[in-house]
Amino acid sequence: VALVGTFLAWTWTSEFPGDLTVTGYPGGLQVLTLVGAVLTLLFALSGYGIKGLGWLTPGGANSPVRLAALGVLGTTGFTIGAIAVKLGGVVNLEPGAWVSLAGAIIAAVAALGLPADQELDDTTRPTPLNRFINTLRAPAPARAKDLPNWAEILI
């Protein structure tokens, strides 16, 4: 949903840097939301085991989704806040901004609902902050496969 919102106008005036008034062509900070939403989608699809995307998440599948979704929410929230402050209120926001914000909130809440890639270890006190930080950690990726004999010659 945040991805779709980047193709809609976020404000009605071009006084905000980046000209976020154009529909169908993201500009300025919309591009950051667009890239973050695409990365979140790719990480989520990689977690489902879509062929060809396994290289994106060699350690754990849920931690990258959670970080990307929180990044999209932060970027979109910052942009909407900056527009409201610079232009004098939320009345200056167009529907595209609200669509992207709703999509970023949905993605972040859904990502926070994913299980942690690693269990909380016994050495850490199980405070809410430690639990949250643990959900952002991914297990170490597996050891790289050995090269075939013909490829070792090239190195």
Automatic annotation (TrEMBL):
Keyword Transmembrane in record: yes
TM segment ranges:
27-46, 67-85, 97-116
Q: Which UniProt keywords apply?
A: Membrane, Transmembrane, Transmembrane helix
What this protein is called in its record is: Branched-chain amino acid ABC transporter permease
